[in-house]
Design goal:
The protein is an alpha+beta fold. The chain has twelve helices and 13 strands. α1 packs antiparallel against α2 and α8 packs parallel to α12. The structure holds adenosine-5'-diphosphate and magnesium ion. It catalyses: ATP + protein L-histidine = ADP + protein N-phospho-L-histidine.
C-alpha cells in the first residue's frame, strides 16, 4: 500500500479540524464561539477516542491582571470536577503573578505544560486538597496546558484533561492539540474584535439617530421661526415706510435719521430671515430649479440696470464686457439673478475706488461669468473661509461703512450654482488688490429627473440692499 494514502484516522482528524474552522467562521458572538469550540474539540477528540474528558478555556484579563476561566466542556467528567469544587467555575481566577501555577507558566513562557497533579493548575485559588478531590471525582490522570498565542503574545490557555497517562499521548495527538489551540486563539481574537465592533456600531447607531433627530428639530425650528418672524418684520417695515413717507405727520431731521436706521436694520433682519429660509429649504432638498436655455449676456445686461444706480451713487463703475455677444447656458432665471445680485452686492460693499467689471466667456461645455472688482481683496488665509455658512470674515482690511451682512450670501450662491451643475470659485491678488468671483453655467440641458413631490412653500422675495 502506498505510504501517502489517507488512513481513516487522518480523515477523521481533517474532518475534526474542518468542523472547528467552520464553527469559528460561522459564529461571531464571543461567548457562543468559545463554548462551541470547546465542546466541538471534545466531541471531535471523543470520536477519535483518545481519552480526553475535560477541556477548559481561560483568557487573560489585562485590566485585572488575571487569568479567567471562560469555558468548560459540557461533559460528565467536567461536571464531576465541579461537583466537589469549593469555587464555582467562573470564580477560578488566577493572578498573573502566580508563577508556580502551570497555567500561568504556560502563558508566560509560551510552552506546553503537563501534569498528573490537579493542584498544579488549580492552586491558587483552589486549595490543593480540594483540587485533588476534583481530579479523583472525574477520574483524570493527565492534564496538558497549551498557551493560546496571537503574533507571539499569549492571550490565554487551554487545558486538556484525559484519563490516560502522559506516555500514551502520541506526537500526532500533540500536534493536533497544538493546531486546536492556534485555531481557538484565532477564534477568540476574531470574535473579540467583532464584539468590540458590534458595541461600537450600536453606539454609533444610537448617536446617529440622535443627530438625525436634532437635525430635523433644527430644520423645523428654522422653518417655523423664519416664517413667524417674517410676517411681523414685514409689517414693521411697511409702518416704518409710512412714517418715513410722512403719512403720520411731518418728521424733523432727527426723527428721519432714527427712522432710517430702523429701516436699515429691519431690512437686514428680513434679508437674514430670507437667507435662512432659503438655506433650510436647499438643505432639505426642497428647492426646485426652473432650468431654461437663456442668453446669459442679455440676462446680465438686464440685471445690471438696477445695480448701476447703486454703483453711480458710490461713484464707481459697473460695466459688462462683451455686451453685444450672445452666450447661451442652462440656468434658472430667478436663481441666476439672486447669484449675481449677491456677488455684485459684495463687490459694491467692499469697493471704494475703481469699480466692478462683469465678464462672460464660454468654452465647449460652460458659460463662465466673472465678477471682478478693484476693492478690499481677500487674503489667502481668508479665501479658505469663503462659501461657508455664516462666513463673514473678521478682519480689519475690510471695514466698510455699512459693513452689515449675514455671511450667508456666498453659501447660498454656492448651493444654487452647484444645484445647477456649475462650480464657483474666488480669487484675489491680496489685500486691497481686488477680488474675482467666477462661476460656470452648463451649456447642456440637465438630465431628465423624475418629479419629486415638493411641499409648496410661499415664495421668498429677494430683498436688495
Ligand atoms: N468682493 C469681495 N471683496 C472682498 N471680500 C469679499 C467679497 N465678497 C465676499 N467677501 C468676503 O466674504 C464674506 C462673506 O460674504 P457673504 O457670504 O456674501 O456674506 P455678507 O455679504 O453677508 O458678509 C464677506 O463678509 C467678505 O468678508
Ligand atoms: Mg453678501
Amino acid at each position: 500500500m502506498p505510504n501517502n494514502k489517507l488512513t481513516p484516522d487522518t480523515l477523521n482528524t481533517l474532518d475534526a479540524l474542518w468542523k472547528l474552522e467552520k464553527i469559528i467562521l460561522d459564529t461571531l458572538d464571543f461567548r457562543e464561539v468559545v463554548q462551541k469550540v470547546v465542546d466541538a474539540i471534545l466531541t471531535e477528540l471523543g470520536y477519535l477516542d483518545l481519552g480526553y474528558k475535560v477541556v477548559v478555556l481561560a483568557l487573560v484579563d489585562e485590566d485585572e491582571q488575571v487569568l479567567k476561566r471562560v469555558s468548560l466542556s459540557q461533559t460528565t467528567e467536567a461536571r464531576k470536577t465541579r461537583e466537589v469544587s469549593e469555587l464555582p467555575f467562573d470564580q477560578i481566577v488566577i493572578p498573573l503573578n502566580e508563577e508556580k501555577n502551570l497555567c500561568i507558566k504556560a502563558l508566560k513562557e509560551g510552552t506546553v505544560q503537563i501534569t498528573q497533579y490537579f493542584p498544579d493548575i488549580l492552586t491558587p485559588p483552589i486549595s490543593p486538597e480540594n483540587a485533588i478531590a476534583s481530579q479523583k471525582n472525574a477520574g483524570i490522570k493527565t492534564s496538558m496546558v497549551y498557551p493560546l498565542q496571537i503574533k507571539g503574545k499569549s492571550i490565554g490557555i487551554m487545558i486538556f484533561s484525559m484519563n490516560k497517562r502522559e506516555e500514551e499521548v502520541t506526537d500526532q495527538e500533540k500536534a493536533l492539540l497544538r493546531y486546536f489551540s492556534d485555531l481557538v486563539a484565532m477564534a477568540v481574537q476574531n470574535s473579540k474584535l467583532y464584539s468590540h465592533l458590534e458595541v461600537e456600531r450600536s453606539q454609533l447607531k444610537i448617536l446617529n439617530e440622535k443627530l438625525e433627530q436634532l437635525d430635523r428639530l433644527k430644520d423645523d425650528f428654522l422653518s417655523v421661526a423664519s416664517h413667524e418672524l417674517r410676517t411681523p418684520m414685514t409689517i414693521i417695515k411697511s409702518y416704518l415706510w409710512m412714517l418715513n413717507a410722512g403719512k403720520g405727520g411731518q418728521l424733523n431731521q432727527k426723527q428721519t435719521e432714527y427712522l432710517n436706521k430702523a429701516v436699515t436694520s429691519t431690512e437686514r433682519m428680513i434679508a437674514l430671515i430670507n437667507d435662512m429660509l432659503n438655506i433650510s429649504r436647499m438643505e432639505q432638498g426642497r428647492v426646485e430649479f426652473d432650468i431654461k436655455k437663456l442668453d446669459i449676456v442679455e440676462l446680465i445686461r438686464d440685471i445690471l440696470v438696477d445695480l448701476k444706480v447703486k454703483a453711480d451713487e458710490r461713484k464707481i463703475y459697473l460695466e459688462l464686457e462683451n455686451q453685444n455677444e450672445q452666450m447661451f447656458g442652462f440656468t434658472d432665471l430667478g436663481k441666476f439673478t439672486e447669484i449675481l445680485i449677491n456677488l455684485i452686492g459684495n463687490s459694491l460693499k467692499f469697493t471704494r475706488e475703481g469699480g466692478i467689471k462683469v465678464k462672460v466667456t464660454e468654452d465647449d461645455n460652460y458659460v463662465n461669468v466673472s465678477v471682478i472688482d478693484t476693492g478690499a481683496g481677500i487674503s489667502i488665509e481668508d479665501q479658505k473661509h469663503l462659501f461657508h455658512k455664516f462666513g463673514r470674515l473678521d478682519n480689519s482690511y475690510q471695514t466698510v461703512a455699512e459693513s452689515g451682512g449675514t455671511g450667508l450670501g456666498l453659501y447660498i450662491v454656492k448651493l444654487y450654482i452647484e444645484g445647477m451643475r456649475g462650480t464657483v470659485q474666488a480669487s484675489s491678488d491680496g489685500i486691497n488688490k481686488g477680488s474675482t468671483f467666477s462661476f460656470t453655467i452648463p451649456k447642456s440641458p440637465p438630465p431628465a429627473q423624475p418629479k419629486t413631490d415638493l411641499t409648496k412653500q410661499p415664495e421668498v422675495t429677494i430683498v436688495k440692499n
